Amino acid sequence: MSLSHLYRDGEDRIDDDDDERENFEITDWDLQNEFNPNRQRHWQTKEEATYGVWAERDSDEERPSFGGKRARDYSAPVNFISAGLKKGAAEEAELEDSDDEETPVKQDDFPKDFGPKKLKTGGNFKPSQKGFAGGTKSFMDFGSWERHTKGIGQKLLQKMGYVPGRGLGKNAQGIINPIEAKQRKGKGAVGAYGSERTTQSMQDFPVVDSEEEAEEEFQKELSQWRKDPSGSKKKPKYSYKTVEELKAKGRISKKLTAPQKELSQVKVIDMTGREQKVYYSYSQISHKHNVPDDGLPLQSQQLPQSGKEAKAPGFALPELEHNLQLLIDLTEQEIIQNDRQLQYERDMVVNLFHELEKMTEVLDHEERVISNLSKVLEMVEECERRMQPDCSNPLTLDECARIFETLQDKYYEEYRMSDRVDLAVAIVYPLMKEYFKEWDPLKDCTYGTEIISKWKSLLENDQLLSHGGQDLSADAFHRLIWEVWMPFVRNIVTQWQPRNCDPMVDFLDSWVHIIPVWILDNILDQLIFPKLQKEVENWNPLTDTVPIHSWIHPWLPLMQARLEPLYSPIRSKLSSALQKWHPSDSSAKLILQPWKDVFTPGSWEAFMVKNIVPKLGMCLGELVINPHQQHMDAFYWVIDWEGMISVSSLVGLLEKHFFPKWLQVLCSWLSNSPNYEEITKWYLGWKSMFSDQVLAHPSVKDKFNEALDIMNRAVSSNVGK
C-alpha cells in the first residue's frame, strides 16, 4: 500500500478527540489510492531501511507517523470548519416525500459525492482518468458484461446438471428468484411502518403473524369488559356430574401404591396461618383454601371492593357452601368406593369360576391316575403271588417281560414315575439268575442275548443314558447286568487261558452292543488285560511254538490302545531272540511281519535298524561277485527283506556293501579284452534283480549310470586302438 497519504495536509486528518493516536481504519481514500496505478510512491532512504521508525530525522523534515498524525501546535490560531446550513422543515418534508416515491433513479440524479472522490494529495491521478479498478460504478449496468461473452457460466451450469427455471442443488432445493428487497417508507426503525416481509418470503415461508394474533386476543379481552347491550342478566350455568363419570374417574386412579397409601395416612400440622391446623392426609391440604377463614370479617371474604361503594351480595354464606361441598365430596367418594367394591366382587366371581374349572380338571386327572395305579398294583401283586415257591403256576422270564411291556405301553406315566429299580430287583432278578444258572459263555456265547436286549429296552433309564452316568441305584438294567450277568463272566475269565483267545473274543463281540459301555471297559481293563500281560511275561520266542501274534492280534478290534503297554516287552523279547539270528533263517521274517502294522512306524524302523539291518549288512559283505560262477543265495536273503525294512535302509546297505565290489569286478573284467555282449547281459541281469522302487532311488540310478559310463569308455578306447 502506498504511503503517500502520510504527506497530506495535517489539517485534513486531525481529529480534535484523537490527539496523539494512530488511526488504522480503512477509508475511501485508502481504497482509491490502492487501486491507483499512477500514485506517487515514497522511496525509503538507506537510514530508514536500516532503522525503520527509529531512524533519525531533521526537525524541519520530520516525517509523520503511519497514521498520518502530527503533533498538535497549540500555539496556532483556531481554524473553524464550515458545517453548512440547516434545512428548514418544508425542505425536509419535501425530501421525505421524494424518498417515498418509487421512481427510477438515473445516473445523473446521483450526487457528486456518490462517485469516486478526487485525491487531495495533488496529482495522484491524471486528468484524463475517469475511473479505476475498485472504484464505485453505477449499479444500473450491473451484469451488462454478460452480453459481451459467449455465456460460459450458463454452459458450465448446464454441464453440471442445471435445468433453467429450476433451483440449484442436487434436489433443486435452491430458490429460483433472487432475494427481493423492500424499501422502508420513512426513516423510522425496523417494524415502525408495519411488516416488512416481501411477497416472495410470504410464499416461501407462510407463517401466521404474531402481531395479528396478539391484536385478536386483545380485542377479545376488551369485549369482555363491555356491557351487554341487551341489558339482560346472564343466567347461571350449572355443571352436573353423572354417576358414570364418577365411576370412570375412580377407575383411573383407584389403585394407590404402597408409599401413596402410607402418605395418605400421615398426620400433617399446618402452621402457615395464624392458627395451627391439623390434617390427617396430604390430600386435605389441597382443600384447605376452600374452607372459609373464621378470623376474617365477612366483607373480606367477598369480592374485592371497587372504587365506589360496592353492593353487598344478597346471598353469601361461605360456611354453608363449604359444608355442602364437603357433603358432595363425601358422596362422590362413597359412590367411587362402592363401584370399586362391586368391581372387586365381580372379579372375584370370575376368578373363583376359573379356579373351579382348574380344580375339576385336576380332580379328573387324579381319578385317572388312581385308577391306573390300582391296575398297576394288581399286576405287580399277581407277579409276586406267582413267584412264591408253592405256586402251581410259577412266573417265567418271558411272561414277566410281557407284563413289563404292558406297563410300559398302557401305563407309561406311572411306569416312568415308579421305582423301576426296586420292582426289577424284587421280580426280575430272581428269574434272571435262574435263567443263567447253567450258562457257559465260552461254549454258547449268544445264549441270552435276545432276552437281555428285550429287558434293556424295558429297564434302561433314557435320562441316565443321555447324561452318560453309571449310577446303579438309578438304572435297573445296569444293576441287573452288574449283579446277575457279571458274576458269570468273572467266573469264566478266571478259568480262561489267554492263548485260547477265540472263544472269549467271540463272546465279547456278541455282547458288546448289549451290555453298558462301562461294564465292557471293566471287563477289558480288570479281567482280560491282566491275563494277557501275565501271559506275555511268560512267553519265550525261542521255545514257544505258537507265535505271539496269534493270540494277541485278535484283541486289537476290542482293546486297541489298551494293548500299547504289551508292545514294549514283546519288542524286547524279540530283540534278545534275534541276537544269534542269521539272514538265512526265514522264520524271523514270519514272526516279525504281523507286527509291522501294529507297531508305530517310528518304533518299527528303530527295531529294524537295531536288529535286522546289521545282520543283512554282514550277509552282503560276505557276498562274492564272480561273473563266471556267481552264488546268489546271500543276495536273495537280503533282497527278501525289502518289504520289511525301509527303502532308504536297503539302499544304504547296497551302497556300502554291494556296489563298490560290483563296480570293481566290472572294471577288472573290461580291462582284459572281454566279450561286450556277455558284459551287457551280466549288467542287465543284475539290474533285473532289483525292484522298480529300488531302481527309482537316485543313489541306485547313479550307480548303474556310473557302470554304463565305464562300459562306454572301455568300448570307445578299444575302438580308438
UniProtKB/TrEMBL annotation:
Xref: SMART domains: G_patch
GO molecular function per UniProt: nucleic acid binding
Compartmental location: Nucleus
UniProt-listed Pfam families: G-patch, GCFC, TIP_N
Highest taxon, organism lineage: Eukaryota
Protein's recorded name: Tuftelin-interacting protein 11
Transmembrane regions listed in the UniProt entry: none
Gene Ontology BP annotations: biomineral tissue development; spliceosomal complex disassembly
The UniProt record lists the keyword Nucleus: yes
Stated role: Involved in pre-mRNA splicing, specifically in spliceosome disassembly during late-stage splicing events. Intron turnover seems to proceed through reactions in two lariat-intron associated complexes termed Intron Large (IL) and Intron Small (IS). In cooperation with DHX15 seems to mediate the transition of the U2, U5 and U6 snRNP-containing IL complex to the snRNP-free IS complex leading to efficient debranching and turnover of excised introns. May play a role in the differentiation of ameloblasts and odontoblasts or in the forming of the enamel extracellular matrix.
Region span, Disordered: 1-21, 85-133, 178-236
Ranges of Basic and acidic residues composition bias in the record: 1-11, 103-116, 217-231
Ranges where the G-patch domain occurs: 149-195
Record keywords: Biomineralization, mRNA processing, mRNA splicing, Nucleus, Spliceosome
PANTHER family: TUFTELIN-INTERACTING PROTEIN 11, TUFTELIN-INTERACTING PROTEIN 11-RELATED
InterPro entries noted in UniProt: G_patch_dom (IPR000467), GCFC_dom (IPR022783), STIP/TFIP11_N (IPR022159), TFP11/STIP/Ntr1 (IPR045211)
Biased composition (Acidic residues): 12-21, 91-102
Record text on subunit structure and interactions: Identified in the spliceosome C complex. Found in the Intron Large (IL) complex, a post-mRNA release spliceosomal complex containing the excised intron, U2, U5 and U6 snRNPs, and splicing factors. Interacts with TUFT1. Interacts with DHX15; indicative for a recruitment of DHX15 to the IL complex. Interacts with GCFC2.
Family per record: Belongs to the TFP11/STIP family.
An annotated GO cellular component: U2-type post-mRNA release spliceosomal complex
